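Before the break, one more example. Copy the sequence into your notebook; we will annotate it together after we see the structure.
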Amino acid sequence: MAPRLKLFAPLLIFALLALLLFRGLSLDPREMPSALIDKPLPEFELFSLGGQRTLTREDVTGQVSLFNVWATWCVSCRVEHPYLQQLADAGVPIVGVNYKDEDAAALQWLQDLGNPYTVNIADRDGTLGLDLGVYGAPETYVVDADGVIRYRHVGVVDERVWRSILEPIVLELTASEVN
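Here is what the structure looks like once it is written out:
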């Protein structure tokens, strides 16, 4: 009887691998926590978009800000861009991290669609994105005045996400900054 069971071993292994693969594919990256929550924004030294100057962690911290990872090749980034512009127009500081993109395309995008960013980091090779644990664009981080990452959102920032998730965090951090 044992030799007959060996015939079913490949089928059993296949079923087990299929189950593990299905489970892995059903994981939502938006639900995966960042290992950097409550840790400092990683150190970096990258050019600003267009290469005008070198930016470091110290250049982009000092106030509660959103750090938005975006790219011109990202369809969802185009969807969220008008809302980011509304937030910026309302006074919300947003630092852009242009992720694995071409400067010329990104600068044209900002010229055509508006520029909601106080400054834009050109992460051409994705090194900062790798250090942040970016899965893709768009991703938005809430960073406090001390440069500590307090929250990570994967996906489009729209009015619902802003009002229900990000704004309360930003308001709380801003209030504690004043006290």
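The first helix runs from residue 2 to 25. The first strand starts at residue 45 and ends at 47. Try to locate both features in your own notes.
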